[in-house]
Amino acid sequence: MPNTAPKTYNIVLLPGDGVGPEVTAAAKAVLGVIADFYGHRFEFSEHLIGGAGIDATGDPLPPETTAACLAADGVLLGAVGGPKWDGQKRRPEEGLLGIRKAMGLFANLRPLQVSPVLAHRSPLKKEIVEGVDLIVFRELTGGVYFGEKTRTDSMASDLCIYSVEEIERVTRAAFKTALQRRGKVTSVDKANVMETSRLWREVVTRIHAEEFPQVQLEHALVDSMAMHLIRKPREYDVILTENMFGDILSDEISVLGGSIGLLPSASLGEAGPGLFEPIHGSAPDIAGQDLANPVGTILSAAMMLRHSLELEDEATSIEAAVAAVLAAGATTADLGGELGTRAAAEAIIDAIKAIHWAATHRVQMHWG
Ligand SMILES: NC(=O)c1ccc[n+]([C@@H]2O[C@H](COP(=O)([O-])OP(=O)(O)OC[C@H]3O[C@@H](n4cnc5c(N)ncnc54)[C@H](O)[C@@H]3O)[C@@H](O)[C@H]2O)c1
Ligand SMILES: CC(C)[C@H](C(=O)O)[C@@H](O)C(=O)O
Ligand SMILES: [Mg+2]
């Protein structure tokens, strides 16, 4: 039911490359239906990023894209990259790293819930994955991604660098979320080898003791964590880790849910709009064929409604519709179904309509 005064929201779409435009279009269609039902006005504008930016302007992050993102209420991104730009001077991925940095998005949230109806899609045993409910807090604007890079003919280096402040702010965000969940944080590092990880562990331990002693904290080394996530994923609640470990572990856990195409993410800073994107890439092997699973992007749009536009009911109704459609087995090929990208989005739109019809019907009966 509409419960918010009509308002205009400025949403920037960054379709990008490969399957990016397909999954972004699917999410835009879903957002359009939400706007109609709740009486909001979503004003969409599309901007260039990644390979599309290189092709059109020579720049993977044209300045006007950055300006539009900074002025938006929320930003929804598809994906960037692909073999077309291999070996070129500018890389599509520079655009993604650049916009994360420019918007100050230091915390990347990657939630995963494995519903009982999809547990059989995982290559792992149903009893291992059923009921998994975790969220990865990945530090997003530091570490080896952003340290100095050097290159000569015979050598290359990537500096991994973290400041205390960079570790503190993502740590606080993770602990705050743990307080609203099952109250457990697993901090993942490589403190047996890396100095940045020893600093990471010290800072996390101090913030825990000083500010969040009621949360249960454990530390894990990233190599054994990669194993534990496959062996006993239900034990984890909030997983806090640095940039590169978070990138790798989040693709790993997507297998628990049955497909990387399902996982959304929210990238958030201290203030200002967030950037929302599926965790998957541009999937060049299936691009342009109406094969991509749009659910990760549609759930990212729901996260955008919740975190940047503060439209909680609207976010929940998208999530309920996605859950209903997946439960009914209406899926794309990656989950064994027969729907294309567009048909999967249509199924979710139909479910949103059905959920709203039921809600309206109940209210009318109540009034009658
Ligand atoms: N956020 C981003 O923009 C982002 C994220 C990851 C990778 N990338 C880029 O994407 C390009 C391809 O990378 P990759 O192949 O290693 O990873 P990928 O995530 O694009 O694809 C890995 C596998 O998952 C499948 N897959 C991905 N998304 C899917 C979806 N929505 N539905 C069904 N199947 C899906 C692909 O078909 C492929 O088999 C690279 O250039 C990489 O840098 C971009
Ligand atoms: C494309 C790449 C730069 C990006 C990352 O490593 O952050 C991607 O893998 C992701 O997970 O968002
Ligand atoms: Mg990744």
UniProtKB/TrEMBL annotation:
Entry's cofactor comment: Binds 1 Mg(2+) or Mn(2+) ion per subunit.
Entries under SMART domains matching the protein: Iso_dh
Enzyme Commission numbers on file: 1.1.1.85
Keywords annotated in UniProt: Amino-acid biosynthesis, Branched-chain amino acid biosynthesis, Cytoplasm, Leucine biosynthesis, Magnesium, Manganese, Metal-binding, NAD, Oxidoreductase
Residues at which NAD(+) binds: G281, S282, A283, P284, D285, I286, A287, G288, Q289, D290, L291, A292, N293
First-level EC class: oxidoreductase
Annotated compartments: Cytoplasm
Pathway: Amino-acid biosynthesis; L-leucine biosynthesis; L-leucine from 3-methyl-2-oxobutanoate: step 3/4
All copies of domain Isopropylmalate dehydrogenase-like, residue ranges: 10-348
Main location: cytoplasm
GO molecular function terms attached to this record: 3-isopropylmalate dehydrogenase activity
Assembly notes: Homodimer.
Protein family membership: Belongs to the isocitrate and isopropylmalate dehydrogenases family. LeuB type 1 subfamily.
Protein name: 3-isopropylmalate dehydrogenase
Species annotation: Brevundimonas staleyi
Recorded name of the encoding gene: leuB
